[in-house]
Amino acid sequence: xxxxxxxxxxxxxxxxxxxxxxxxxxxxxxxxxxxxxxxxxxxxxxxxxxxxxxxxxxxxxxxxxxxxxxxx
Length: 72
Fold this sequence. Notes:
Blueprint: E1 7-10, E2 16-19, E3 27-30, H1 33-53
Antiparallel strand pairs: 1-2, 2-3
């Protein structure tokens, strides 16, 4: 099984947000990039645990990856 892709966005105030296309509603925010990585990992683990506890099907990761393009 591959891991879940996480999209990272920086807000105007400099904080970071993260979400996963395969797990709607699973998000995390943080002041810094490293903190965001840790919080998103915890969010995914918790999100999947709740899904299992409620008997919901856990989606297989379908997004395959992302990259940054420097358009400048």
